[in-house]
């Protein structure tokens, strides 16, 4: 979650001291052009974090700061299933691991040839 105020999930409210959550507790409030290239993954079946509000909103804020952003949306998985899909037995849920590896490989600095 990058932009979760106001909180409307009752079980989560105590974790973030809602309604007394400090505004600077929102990651989206700390976006600057110094952010690294960013990969945002979300499941469209996520009812916990709300993909459009959080993922799409953070991507928009990062792009406004000229930060490279890749957004991958998985249409059939939930919030927890993204993490679960990293495990070998559940990789069939979505290509999360492949997408992360690909992003890291593309974003990694290229080695400098020695003289």
What can you see in these coordinates?
There is one protein chain. The chain is of the alpha+beta class and 115 residues long. It contains three helices and two strands. The protein has helices spanning 51-64, 79-84, 96-107; strands at 38-43, 69-74. It has a two-stranded parallel sheet with strand order 1-2. The radius of gyration is 17 Å and the shape is globular. The mean pLDDT is 91.
Distance between the termini: 46 Å
Total number of beta strands: 2
Cα gyration radius (Å)? 17 Å
Strand order of the largest sheet: 1-2
What is the string of helix and strand elements?
Answer: EHEHH
Strand content: 5-15%
Number of helices: 3
Question: What ranges have pLDDT less than 50 throughout 5 or more consecutive residues?
Answer: none
Average pLDDT: 91
> Structural class, judged by helices and strands?
alpha+beta
Core attributes:
115 residues, 3 helices, 2 strands
Short characterization:
Helices cover 28% and strands 10% of the residues.
Helix/strand layout:
Elements: E1 38-43, H1 51-64, E2 69-74, H2 79-84, H3 96-107
Parallel strand pairs: 1-2
């Amino acid at each position: 979650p990058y932009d979760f105020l106001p909180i409307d999930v009752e079980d989560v409210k105590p974790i973030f001291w809602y309604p007394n959550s400090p505004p600077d507790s929102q990651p989206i409030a700390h976006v600057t052009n110094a952010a690294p290239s960013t990969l945002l993954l979300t499941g469209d079946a996520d009812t916990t974090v709300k993909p459009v509000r959080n993922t799409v909103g953070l991507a928009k804020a990062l792009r406004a700061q000229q930060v490279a952003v890749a957004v991958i949306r998985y249409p059939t998985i939930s919030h927890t299933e993204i993490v679960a899909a990293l495990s070998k037995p559940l990789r069939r849920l979505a290509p999360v691991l492949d997408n992360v590896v690909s992003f890291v490989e593309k974003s990694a600095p290229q080695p400098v040839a020695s003289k």
